[in-house]
Automatic annotation (TrEMBL):
InterPro entries cross-referenced by the UniProt entry: Glutaredoxin, Thioredoxin-like_sf
UniProt cross-references to Pfam families, sorted A to Z: Glutaredoxin
Record-annotated Glutaredoxin domain positions: 48-101
Protein name, UniProt field: Glutaredoxin
Species for this entry: Duganella vulcania
Record GO biological process: cellular response to oxidative stress
């Protein structure tokens, strides 16, 4: 898979630091959680899909770390940094053993296929 990302050579030197440091601390927090936990769910308030993902995991008895950032009413700028980092456009962002598996519906599909159980084993 190849993902289109603007090459650094095409970012003017005057703004490279701004691009590279955009909410860096938030991205670092999520990276640390992903490194320290088998399953991580990154969500936001008022969005039903992070709740759906947590309900699936709770039903399976799977331990996970949940991180929530803002809601539809605020916090969109920091969440944009996570979207830029992962390339995933929506919440939740679910990671299993360091791998982004998608959102709640993607988790449900992996559970139904038996793939999720193999991943966390």
């Amino acid at each position: 898979m190849s993902r289109n990302i603007l090459d650094e050579a095409h970012i003017h030197p005057a703004v490279r630091e701004q691009v590279g440091s955009y909410h860096r601390e938030l991205v670092a927090e999520v990276q640390a959680a992903v490194a320290a936990n088998t399953v991580v769910v990154v969500g936001m308030g008022l969005n039903p899909f992070p709740r759906k993902a947590r309900k699936i995991l709770d039903g399976l008895g799977t331990p996970y770390q949940y991180l929530s950032y803002g809601s539809y009413l605020g916090g969109w700028r920091p969440r944009t940094a996570l979207k830029m980092w992962t390339g995933w456009p929506t919440f939740p962002m679910i990671f299993v053993k360091g791998t982004l598996i998608g959102g709640a519906n993607d988790l449900q599909k992996l559970v139904e296929q038996g793939e999720f159980a193999r991943m966390v084993a």
